[in-house]
Amino acid sequence: MSETVKKFLYVNRRAPYGTIYAQEALEVVLIGAAFDQDVSMAFLDDGVFQLTKGQDTKGIGLKNFSPTFRALGDYEVTKLYVERESLEERGLSLDDLQDIQYEDEDDDWAEKPSIRLISRAEMADVMADQDVVLSF
Amino acid sequence: MSETVKKFLYVNRRAPYGTIYAQEALEVVLIGAAFDQDVSMAFLDDGVFQLTKGQDTKGIGLKNFSPTFRALGDYEVTKLYVERESLEERGLSLDDLQDIQYEDEDDDWAEKPSIRLISRAEMADVMADQDVVLSF
Amino acid sequence: MATLHTVNKSPFQAGALSSCLAHIKEGDTVLMIEDGIYGALTGTGFSDKVQASGAKICVLGPDVSARGIDTAHILASVETVDYDGFVDLAAASARVQAWL
Amino acid sequence: MATLHTVNKSPFQAGALSSCLAHIKEGDTVLMIEDGIYGALTGTGFSDKVQASGAKICVLGPDVSARGIDTAHILASVETVDYDGFVDLAAASARVQAWL
Amino acid sequence: MKFGIVVNEGPYTHQASDTAYNFAKSALSKGHEIARVFFYHDGVNVGTRLSIPPQDDRQIQEQWSALAKDHGVDLVICIAAAQRRGLLDENEATRQGKDANNIAEGFRISGLGQLIEMGIQCDRTITFGD
Amino acid sequence: MKFGIVVNEGPYTHQASDTAYNFAKSALSKGHEIARVFFYHDGVNVGTRLSIPPQDDRQIQEQWSALAKDHGVDLVICIAAAQRRGLLDENEATRQGKDANNIAEGFRISGLGQLIEMGIQCDRTITFGD
Predict the structure, then answer these.
(1) Cβ contacts of B27 within 8 Å, gap of 6 or more
(2) Maximum separation of any 2 CA atoms in chain B, in Å
(3) How far is B35 from chain D (nearest CA, A)?
(4) Burial track E22-46 (b if 16+ CB lie within 10 A, e otherwise)
(5) In this structure, what DSSP letter does residue E91 have?
(6) Does C96 sit within 8 Å of E127, measured CB to CB?
(7) Please, how many CA atoms are within 13 Å of residue F99, restricted to the half-sphere of its CB?
(8) Closest residue by Cα to residue B92 from B136, B135, B46, B124
(9) What CA–CA distance (Å, rounded) separates F72 from A38?
């Protein structure tokens, strides 16, 4: 649709389910994937809660959208930056998050983790390296 | 409409204008005044910002509803509890708030201040003394 | 009779839990619902405050499960209730105050 | 080129300002708008942090006036801009990041 | 026991109306009465019949309408809040010269007095908001 | 310079749409272009023609409709977000079997691709939300 390739960052700072922002952010990412841009997602502050494994929403009646994160690789969304300090402040570690993988086409389709645990300072670097920052 | 007299507390914890809660809370208080209940308002946390004097909304295009606070006395809403710690944490003092008065019918219509500056512990007492607590 | 306080916001994102805990009276109950359940996590800057609150602290179980928070991460002193338990708590208190 | 960061929430109510200040780079600008302008107050628990941020800090004047905050209560190091100034800041930055 | 419920946030955007609904269902199943649900602020948007949620998601407005039908729960939308946000019944639409209305079955539009009255008449008033 | 604007919150409830409008007006008066305004989340509710705000308050929907008319600003409402929240145009209403629609003049309903396209084509994308 356009020859320009821009760096898009989707910033997720909110918990899932209490509000719809996390879910509707994911809908943007899926649609955006068709545009062949350079896409990254940032998870910091309460946004890290979006990635927990074992989400079961039957009791509250809302739709569980967390499996969608595992499908992102198929849409070539492979850079999910998670801020270490945000996780730690919430008493969580990488073990509490879903195992999200993608197949690396440049490396014989090897399965690689999409989640990249980075420091707060590195997150600032990622943010400063973008063309378009969409916040949810 | 009813012979029951209940103690109603309207709890204001949010700043004005950024969201509509403060303004729509005031609309409830004005309507509620017709029901002859025992009404109090609590201002704590960012709610204390609602009462600042000199609000001028021309630049943002929203309606300035702050003069309504001065009319509350005419509706016999005369107990505006303001939490001292909330004011202090925000670098404000009573001098920064509007001068809101009511005429005391039990004291020869003497003008008295509606704002009652109380401590956090006293605010907890006020809250625990209510029948209905409406939060905005 | 005591008050049931509901808190529906993450303590990391909003001041509701802190303000609630600063205004509770002896015998009160605090029920964490929706994104408020993160206030019941172990190992956070709020854990000690919640445990030392003196109030009975509850979380709404369906909101904990929805968010994939393992019970191992929930403070042992916190009681888990379902919607029926929420109703019982509301009925057993003199008033319900929502910390929005 | 640098980033324009907008913060529209009160620092007393939300973590947006703190998180923003923890992620800015040299040369960036932080513009406080809407309820975010309370971050520019003197004499609060955030005042020192804002002054020591290293970034250029601005407030949207119309939002300050609307909220009846006397300029005496605004940190001296903070620059006041109007909507035209907001547009200029956005145009002069490589990107705009909203801390919602 | 007689409960009154306040819903302050819009459907899907915030979990408030879902939690309120689950609370109401539980209260009814335990033999309590839900005397009224008052929709205020963005809560008024719960009462639109024009929403088309994804089929695999819960149908919030229909859930409430069914509650009104099955249990006679009085669903009241605040008129002042509704006018600002564009939620109208046929009467209001006609009176205000609007060419359409969007209120759903089981909801009615009325004044803020209904909120105060609910607080007076109910044993417990409980608020679900943001 | 070419600006794209995202509005994420509903009218009156949150100041976001007001700030976005004031920003857009300033940008236009300074000779910039507002290529598109994309309404997402509750922002879709800005585009209802059924709202009846108090007469002494600003008329948010009319302000935006006038901006579209006077400056050719493209006002796009996200279809997925709009369906959840009950904001429909005539086409959608017919297609979905709804008996009314509520979109205001100057707004159009389209897909999320319009948001990405805006980000690609504009020099700056700026978000107003909660």
Answers:
(1) E80, E112
(2) 46
(3) 31
(4) bbbbbbbeeebbbbbbbbbbbbbbb
(5) H
(6) yes
(7) 8
(8) B46
(9) 30
Q: Does C2 touch chain D (CB under 8 A)?
A: no
Q: Where in the sequence numbering do the catalytic residues of E fall?
A: 78
What's the token pair of residue A85? 């300090």
Using the Cβ of A17 and the Cβ atoms of chain E, whether some distance falls under 8 Å is answered with yes
Mean pLDDT, to the nearest integer, of B82-91? Answer: 98
- Each residue's pLDDT expressed in tens, for chain C with a length of 100 residues: 799 999 999 999 999 999 999 999 999 999 999 999 999 999 999 999 999 999 999 999 999 999 999 999 999 999 999 999 999 999 999 999 999 9
Rounded-to-integer distance, Cα B97 and Cα B82, Å: 10
As a whole number of angstroms, the distance between CA C55 and CA C17 comes to 13
**End-to-end distance of chain E based on CA atoms, in angstroms?**
26
| Region F114-124 average pLDDT | 98
CB–CB of A41/A33 below 8 Å? no
- How far apart CA E6 and CA A56 sit, in angstroms, is 27
CB B82 within 8 A of CB B51: yes
**Radius of gyration over alpha carbons of chain E, in Å?**
14
How many CB atoms neighbour CB C24 within 10 A? 22
How close is the nearest chain E Cα to the Cα of A16, in Å? 10
Two structure tokens written together for E68 = 């009104």
Chain B residues close to C94, C-beta within 8 Å:
131
For residues B107 and C77, the answer to whether their CB atoms sit within 8 Å is no
CB proximity E45 to B under 8 Å = no
The whole-angstrom separation of Cα B115 and Cα B98 is 9
Amino acid identity of residue C82, one-letter, is D
CB–CB of C38/A46 below 8 Å? yes
In angstroms, the separation between the Cα of residue F66 and the nearest Cα of chain D is 19
Nearest to C94 by CA among B7, E17, E117: B7
Phi-psi region of D37 (alpha: psi -120 to 50; beta: other; left: phi over 0): alpha
C-beta neighbour count of D52 within 10 angstroms: 9
Q: Cα angle vertex E124, ends C77, B124, to 5°?
A: 60
